[in-house]
Every structure is written in C-alpha cells, then in structure tokens.
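== Folding task for one protein ==

=== Format: two labelled lines per protein ===

==== Paired sequence and structure tokens ====
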Amino acid sequence: MSEELTDRIMQKAKEYEKEVTQFLRDIVAIPSYSGEEKEVVDRIAEEMRKVGFDEVKTDGLGNIFGRIGSGKTIIAMDAHIDVVGVGDRTQWKYDPFKGKLEDGVVYGRGAGDQKAGMASMVYAGKIIKDLHLEGDYTLYVVGSVMEEACDGLPWQYIVKESGLRPDYVVITEPTNLNIYCGHRGRIEVKIRTKGRSAHAAMPEMGDNAIYKMAKIVLGIEKLNNELKPDPFLGKGTAVVSQIFFKSPSENAVADECTIHIDRRLTKGETKETAIAEFKKIINEAGVEAEILEQTYDGLAYTGNKYSSEKYFRTWVMDEDSDIVQSAVRTYKALFKSDPKIDKWNFSTNGVATAGLFGIPTVGFGPANEIYAHGPDDQAPVEHLVKAAAFYAYFPQVVS
C-alpha cells in the first residue's frame, strides 16, 4: 500500500472531524441502557444511511449492522452501544447525557465506553466510500446491544442466531489508540450454605449458616492471595462481591447464607479449574455447601429473550498472528510510529468472538479505558479522527 493512500485516508478523516464529533455528541445524548437501545440504534441507522453504507439492518436482538461491500473476506468491527448507569450525578462535572464538547474532548456517559468507537466506525465507512476503497472484502460495522449487562451475549446471538461468522473481528472498546490482543475472562458463581434456625437467645439450638459461610469466605480470600500471574495478562482474582442471608428475624440464627463470587480468569484458567478450586475450599472448610453456576437472562428492546451462562472465556491473540500484525501494519502506515501492544483490564465482547468461537480478534479504540464507568467518561476528538482512519484502512491490510 502506498504512502499516498494512507495520507489521503488521514486527510479525509481530518476533513470529517466536525461531523464525527457531532455524531458522537448526538448518540451520547441518547440514554441507552441495556435492553433500552432502540432510540440510539435508530440514530445510528440514520447516520449509516447518510454516509452511504450499502445496507443497514438490525437482527432479532436489536444489534445494528452497517454493511459495505460483498467480497470474500468478512470483517466485523464491533462497538457496544449500551451504557451503564450514571451513579451519583453530583460527581459529574457535565450532564452525562448532553455530549458536552470542551477543549477537544467529548464528555458524557458512554462517550468513551464506547460510543466513540461507533462514531469512528461509521465515518470510516464514509472514508471508504469517498476514496473507493472497497475490495474483496465485506465489512460489517456492528453496534451491539446488552453488552454491559452480559459481555459476549450479543455476539453469541450474532453467530448462533443471525448467521454472521466473520473471518476477523476488531473490538473498538477504548484502548487509548493502542493495539490490544486479549484480556482475562471470568466466571460468576454463588455458594450457598444451609443451617437450622433458632432463637438468638439460644444459638446452641440452631446451626448458623453464616458461620459456615465465614470459613468459605476466608478460603476465597486465601485463594485470591495465592493465584499465580501470567506474564502478559497478569494474575486472576477471586472476590466475594455480595453476601445474602435468610433468617426468621433479626433475633434468630440464620438458616441460609449465600455469597456471590467474581472469579477473574487469567491464561490457563477455566470454568472447570475455578469450580475445582471452590470445591477444595468447601472441603477444607469442613462444611456442606452448594456451588450454583449463574445464568444471565436478558430481555432485548425487540421483546426477544436471550440467555447466557456467566462464564466469560479468557482470550489472547499471539502477537505474531495475522490479525495482530495487520493491525500493527495499519498503525505504522497511518501514524508513522510503532504501536504499543497491550491488553484490557476489563472484559469485552471478545469473550465470545475469540474466547468462545475462536474468531481472530484484535482491539483498537479511541478513548482511555481508565474513564470507563466513571463520572469522567470521555473521548478526545483527536482519537475519533485517528480511529476513523484506522478502521478505514484496516480492511485493505487484513484482506
């Protein structure tokens, strides 16, 4: 590929700075909680048609697809378009649903996580059309729903129900314009102990389920401290994040206790290894307890229901893999420098594309992940421009 072409792509991306920024501001201003994304989907569809996508459609879950081309290699670029809640509004400097532009940065809930990726992808499509960059590839720009509620769920639906299985996937979650090639997975489980209630004035007459659980909780804490790190992904973690109990009254021995565990999984750790760890902890605690694997049951804005086990697979792409090296070549050609290769701290739809389905997946996104889910959620305009150029050029390199 010529330097002249990459210069033209960068120039086009800069020409559309005002438009891509306004589009991001528009979609940030639309609240789109998981299962409530219809209004933002409609706005994205409007912009996709405006800039000239060949086809714009939604599936039964409400994911939106913008297609360019009909060539052999199928490339999907994904941005989830749902957002988490606002939390304490007093902590926000700007209204979370105004899409405030200040000193070259767009602020608001979902600005960085991750509507910036969506905005840049749509204008990458405009660049492809303007410069006639279509080739022997089919590009799908995907706005996925319900990811914040259950990462990977929309892509389970896309592959299993909608019938789209790309050859390559780009996850546009925030990477601070670095190239990311994996992250830890996780499993969520509950553990339940049962006892026998009695009056609190006579606790010896009962069997306290909370006391039984206390031994298990200490075992989970010990497990977390003993987990071994992976050189790239780091160590897994085990956290008791919630605790529940049942008791006839405040003055009675609890007859049931349940904890919720978030177990982050590094490379080499799986659902099976984690469950084995929990069984060992229960055995060493010398109590009877039940391990309850968890399922997410989601209701989409379309009215359709879809479920997923709460097991999110670890994934890592080798730095020498075709997709990572294609991302590296794209970066070098456009930005005239070497990229940083890294990983996310949090989880993405890659748990499905790469972790479950084995589809080559790489991450490149505008904004910095450190602002995700916080009251400073933001995306620099400069990042929008550079990401749009990257997404426009990448299909030329990987296909």
Summary: The chain has a mean pLDDT of 97.
